[in-house]
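Internal QA ticket QA-208
Title: Verify multi-chain structure generation after dependency bump
Assignee: T.L.

Test input:
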Amino acid sequence: MELRLKNVSHAYGGTEVLRDITLTIPEGKIVCIVGPSGCGKSTLLRMMGGLEKPDAGEILQVGAPPEGCLNPLTYVFQDFALLPWRSVAGNIALALEDHRLGRRQRQAIVADVLARTGLSDFAGALPRQLSGGMKQRVAIARALAVNPAVMLLDEPLSALDAQTRELLMDDLIGLWTRAPFTAVYVTHNLAEAVRLGHAIVVLSRRPGAIRELVAIDAPLEARDMSDPGLAAKQQHLWHLMRDEARAADAELADV
Amino acid sequence: MSEIRPVPFRGGGFRPQVRRWVGFVVFVLLIAIAEWGTRTGWISNLTLPRPSDVLATFGELWQSGLLFKHLLPSLSRLAVGAALGVSVGVSVGVLIGLFSYVRAGLVPVVAALFPIPKIALLPLFVIWFGIDEGSKYALIAFGTFTPTVVATYGAVDNVDRTLIRMGQSFGLTWWSIVRKIVLPGAMPGILSGLRISLAIGIILLVAAEMLGAEYGIGAYILEAGSLYDLERLFAGVVILSILGVIVSSAITMIEKRLLRWRG
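Actual output:
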């Protein structure tokens, strides 16, 4: 399934946050959205999943979701959003409970995604017993459980420390290589974008508009950050963003 | 030659720690002072009954079987009244937390009802619900209702909105979100509200038994009071205190079971 945005604009009160965004998320690719803080990238992601309505423009799903898909547009949140009173397996089962699935089938799905994310030994643990990285793995497992058409990742690694971030990026690449999924990945971390994105959308500062679309052709699993080509891409992204990031940083909050 | 000295420690403190026996010692000490004071005549018998006499009265109450004759009706009034008040209170509180119109309509009503001394309404309740058990249930139910409502909608307001957004993003039904996310998330607040509501319920027990009650701890205390029988008055008060401690520790046990996830 493909996701298509046509001339999407949005304003909060009098503040224009997004201006005329037209973008296609192709099937089986990861599209990263980067931009200075306050450029509306998280808002854009919430719109793609139907958690917020744009003032103007439309967001279209093109094509049928894959077979066995329970929730076509599925989020992974920055702060994990796990229910603290449910075990790891219970949190994953939550996404399945409102669907007509047999007990067996549900257990099979939970066991499968736990195995894919390396969490099989933690099925009975409570969220508070897990590290940040493990919590985000549970959230990713929960997203995989509904077999989404498009995964919407909202700064999924921002709440984690640098080492855990590396480990989880490897996990995400491993998951994608084994079974390519479509994803929109919002981040402010350029290294993550260059590592994980097939295409990188650079948004300008408020109101957010597309400044440039950078494509990276190197296959995900073969990307080595010491490769001068990738380093040059990252440098290029930083050049695009630096002045605006500085301006965004110096701005007073007025809302 | 420079002076060498250890870095002085200046951290610590400001952290409550468990000291189980202290509460018990304070109790024993207070009772011992009362006993000693009344025995030496330093405290007159009109001011305070002798603790040992209170204990003796309590023993008589136990042996004559009157204790349970008074205790059982009181407990059933408390149970029925509090169950009514708390269950209606939790439901109304959840509705206020979930629906803006219900909130706009009912929050002022609850704020108006909360400060009314429910005892003042007892004559009215007698007319409405009859002089028998009905008015007693109503008084206790009404008294436990308001604090439960306030605690419950506060608790629902405090449920993490990101969890609710998560539920919506996975396409959970409205009812599933309420049942699996809102209610468990509000449970800590609801239980601490329950602690206050039930204590108020015990307070109102005495008031409820002011009119038309032959048996009951409240009736027993009121009768002793009008006869200025301090030993019996205190025996009754001690029973209420013990009831309060039991209810409070029962809630602690429920909290430990239901809120195990908080660790």
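Spot checks passed. Chain B touches chain A through 19 residues (CB under 8 Å).
Status: verified.
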